[in-house]
Amino acid sequence: MIDSLIHAYTPFLIWVGIGLLGSRLIPDSFLKWLGNGLYWVGVPLQILVLARHTDLSHGFVIPGVAVGVLLLSLILALLIWQVLQWLKNQKQQPDLPNSDLAVDIPLMQASLGSFILAAILGNTGFVGLTLTQVLTSPKNNDWAVLFSVTNNVIGTYGIAVLIASYFGKSKINTQWWTQLRDLVTVPSLWTFFLGVSTQFVPLPAVIESGLEQAVWVVIAFALLLVGLRLGTITGWKSLKIASIASVLKVFVVPVLVGLGATFFGVTGEERLVLVLMSGTPTGLSVLILAEVYDLDRNLLASSIALTFIGLFMALPLWLIWFS
Questions:
Q1: pLDDT at 278 exceeding the cut of 90
Q2: CB hemisphere CA count around 46 (13 angstroms)
Q3: Which of 23, 27, 262, 280 is disulfide-compatible with 128, CB 3.0–4.6 A?
Q4: Based on the number of CB atoms within 10 Å of its own CB, is 36 exposed (0-12), middle (13-18) or buried (19 or more)?
């Protein structure tokens, strides 16, 4: 297990660390350029290469699991928010003793929307695929790819946009056809179908090897961007409520997914893939949604940082319990 953890932590410590160290020196324009480059070229290329080796014999099982994890996280986030609201109301009652569990949570709709997004939207494209490629054998990459594509299409460009537009304070009126356009123009979706449709098209060994090496270059740049973005986080005003969303994201939901997989007879590396993908840190895309729909930026930024810290703590547990 020690060797597995070293392999998992090494790329994070190197590239995220470099990003953190250089975050104060790199202009914001470079971050936007790098983010757009990864969105339009890097991650689609990664998906293309992995999809060429993806086994589709599982049908809709893995996409169904990915959607189920999104809905499970959404329900738990709403329930926890209601409990926190109740504790806050109890704390404000003059004739009742203050509860140590009561948390000073904001009452704004934007904060509720941000809390939900922090709890449900994972970084499956950058972090999830990196972890599964390092910690599991290549034969299980197909589960990770299907999970990631489903999470990006339905989670990021479907459920997350609807939540952000509903709870956000922005007056932007996003029409349904705009959301549909954003959905069908997701580059990773098209390269996934391209990769699957060309599985039986042989490529020269040099090109095949070059594509496989390009995947690791994409991973390095993606983790570098994570470090650069983490280094720009300045607001920690919502640390308490963000810590609750983070525990739900990287601890509670993965445990439930692992136990559920065990109940249905899924064990070994397949179960570990589901746990890793369901417990990835909060995705950087929530910061984009926060800007567009005027959500609680401090809460989301704090959640991203805390979930990355939580991931390092959770990995040994997942390897012990679910590998």
A1: yes
A2: 28
A3: 280
A4: exposed
- Looking at residue 234, its pLDDT comes to 66
**What's the whole-number mean pLDDT along residues 131-152?**
86
Asked if 214 and 49 count as a contact pair (C-beta separation under 8 A), the reply is yes
**Nearest CA to 182 among 289, 50, 30?**
289
Kindly report the backbone phi and psi dihedral angles of residue 122, in degrees, each rounded to the nearest multiple of 5, phi listed first. Answer: -100, 160
Instruction: Give yes or no for a contact between 127 and 280, defined as CB atoms under 8 angstroms apart.
Output: yes
Is the pTM value of this prediction over 0.90? no
Q: In this predicted model, what pLDDT tens digit does every residue of 294-313 receive, in sequence order? A: 788 788 888 988 999 999 99
Which residue, among 217, 283, 289, 282, has the nearest Cα to 41 in the 3D structure?
A: 217
CB 250, CB 310: distance < 8 Å: yes
| Token pair listed for 172 | 């932007």
Place of tokens 């952000």: 164
Gap between the Cα atoms of 191 and 135, Å rounded: 24
State the Cα–Cα distance between residues 213 and 220, nearest whole angstrom: 11
pLDDT of residue 51: 81
**Beta bridge partners of residue 122, listed in sequence order:** 282
Please tell me the distance from the alpha carbon of residue 51 to that of residue 265, in angstroms, as a whole number: 26
237 Cβ contact partners less than 8 Å away, ≥ 6 residues apart = 298, 302
Name beta bridge partners: 282.
122
pLDDT at 232: 75
Q: Using CB atoms within 10 A of its CB, is residue 130 exposed (0-12), middle (13-18) or buried (19+)?
A: buried
- Of 66, 176, 53, 83, the closest CA to residue 121 belongs to 66
Asked if residue 258 lies in contact with residue 318, where contact means CB atoms within 8 angstroms, the answer is yes
At 166-205, the pLDDT tens digits run 887 655 555 666 666 666 777 877 888 898 899 888 889 9
Tokens linked to 217? 């270059």
